[in-house]
Design a protein that fits this description.
heterodimer, A: 167 residues, mainly alpha, Four Helix Bundle (Hemerythrin (Met), subunit A), 2 domains, globular, B: 331 residues, 13 helices, 2 strands, 3% strand
Chain lengths: 167, 331
């Protein structure tokens, strides 16, 4: 039963992911991404990690892709205008990142051992409590570094937006 | 054994869903009669005794109207949008407990469809998905009024979702759980246990954000008739329009139930059975919704956004800090 649900969700994730990168219409691509994100939340829920499943929906399926849609609708991108950016360094950079990603993928798959049970960190404690214990005690410094990074991006966005206004 | 449990679960789902639909139907009548009363009118009182069959007449009218789709609309998304709006609204009721656990024939039955240990986050997740119904309705209609209404309301919902989420953090810190049933249980016993008395600011911030989140007066910019014709649902008619209407009232009921459960002890109360107490509290909040609608004028759009970002969100953060400080000082 659990396996059947897993395979259904996995197929949805992969099929929608494929649709995202092949759609010409940006709105349709974004909508397939929503379904993929929601299905990933389903996978988390199936592993017993309801807390992360809920966050996945709130942050990714909810907030982030709504903003994508927002931008696409505001700019009213048509089928033809939405093409690949032809700047050389972007393509080069994309190629390098793609190779690194494939190497990582191969490493992960080669280390995979079948039969490892998937389970929440500490089922007895409840997801939220277990998560926050790990995050704020064991991984406090990485967490703080990430939050400083995010803050820097946030300030950058505000600065750029307000500059536009002065002109 | 398991079969019995499955049957019990199915009965619960059907009972709560039918109850919700009935409640939605009669909330529309309740609102119309109440607004009429506030404005010194009579309101709908022709169909059945005191107008009690009015919702049935409305439903029949909506069902038999022509389902018109504009020529240049995106037909698939145009049909999906109202469904998304209503399903996300209706699903939220699943984690709200309508009464204490009861025991029938040796089986303990919780009067909630599913007591998730992340119940509150589940509701926020659904409300963040509800935005899609409105955005897609606005965009797929291929009409400027719909698009403007859709963009306005999604910007509003995203902004006030933050306030809504942060305002309940104080309660979550005190209770130490995301489960709504558990939060209600902590408030039973005495009226002084209600989180309203421990988190009064949080409650007001929650309720203001909730009114904005459900796109109602004084925050109903998405459907500001005088400037946008009808907002994101301008091009809709028949039952598709009806589904948006149902979703709005469903959201009102969910928010009232959530406010009652988080801040006012949910189903707990003396003498009367728990379900009755729960319904009384929900109806009081529904009345406040209608009362606000009958009394206040509409905000301007920039005022609304400034109010959300510069008043509600900072105040919720201050509330969290103070709650944390008091908890640390008390030990």
């Amino acid at each position: 039963m659990a396996n059947v649900i897993f395979y259904i969700l996995a197929i949805i994730v992969l099929a929608c992911g494929f649709m995202v990168v092949t759609r010409k219409n940006a709105i349709n691509a974004a909508l397939y991404l929503v379904v993929a994100m929601a299905a990933i939340a389903g996978l988390f829920a199936q592993l017993g990690s309801l807390f992360i499943a809920a966050l996945q929906v709130i942050v990714y399926a909810g907030a982030i892709i709504v903003l994508f849609l927002f931008v696409i609708m505001m700019l009213n991108l048509k089928r033809d205008e939405f093409g690949f950016d032809s700047r050389l360094f972007q393509r080069l950079f994309g190629l390098i990142l793609g190779i690194i990603f494939i190497i990582q993928l191969i490493l992960i798959v080669s280390r995979f051992r079948p039969g490892l049970p998937a389970q929440a960190i500490d089922p007895a404690m409840g997801n939220a409590a277990a998560m926050s214990k790990k995050l704020f005690m064991q991984y406090l410094y990485p967490f703080e570094i990430v939050s400083v990074l995010l803050l820097a991006a946030l300030i950058g966005a505000v600065v750029m937006a307000s500059k536009r206004k002065d002109r | 054994m398991t079969l019995t449990l499955i049957i019990i679960q199915i009965i619960k789902v059907i009972a709560i869903f039918v109850g919700l639909l009935t409640a939605i139907a009669y909330t529309t009548l309740f609102e119309r009669r109440m607004v009429a009363f506030i404005q010194g009118r009579v309101g709908p009182n022709r169909v059945g005794p005191a107008g009690l069959f009015q919702p049935i007449a409305d439903a029949i009218k909506l069902l038999f109207k022509e389902e018109f789709i504009p020529d240049k609309a995106n037909k698939v998304l145009f049909s999906i949008a109202p469904l998304l709006s209503f399903t996300t609204a209706a699903m939220a009721i699943a984690v709200i407990p309508v009464g204490d656990s009861i025991t029938i024939g040796g089986y303990q039955i919780d009067l909630v469809i599913s007591d998730l240990n992340v119940g509150i986050l589940y509701i926020f997740a659904l409300s963040s998905l509800a935005v899609y119904g409105i955005v897609l309705a606005g965009w797929s209609s291929n009409s400027k009024y719909s698009l403007l209404g859709g963009l306005r309301s999604s910007a509003q919902m995203i902004s006030y979702e933050i306030g809504l989420g942060l305002s309940v953090v104080g309660v979550l810190m005190l209770s130490g759980t995301f489960s709504i049933a558990e939060i209600v249980r902590q408030q039973s016993g005495s009226i002084l246990n209600w989180y309203f008395f421990k988190q009064p600011i949080a409650f007001f911030l929650f309720f203001v954000s909730a009114i904005a989140e459900s796109n109602r007066i004084p925050f109903d910019l998405p459907e500001a008739e005088s400037e946008l014709v009808g907002g994101y649902n301008t091009e809709y008619a028949g039952m598709r329009f009806g589904l948006f209407y149902l979703a709005e009232y469903c959201n009102m009921i969910t928010i009232s139930a959530l406010a009652a459960s988080l801040f006012f002890g949910g189903w707990s109360g003396p003498f009367l059975p728990p379900i009755i107490w729960f319904l009384i509290k929900v109806v009081i909040f529904l009345f406040v919704f209608v009362w606000v609608r009958g009394t206040l004028p509409r905000f301007r759009y920039d005022q609304l956004m400034r109010f959300g970002w510069l008043a509600i969100i900072p105040l919720t953060l201050v509330n969290i800090l103070i709650t944390g400080l008091v908890m640390v000082l008390k030990g």
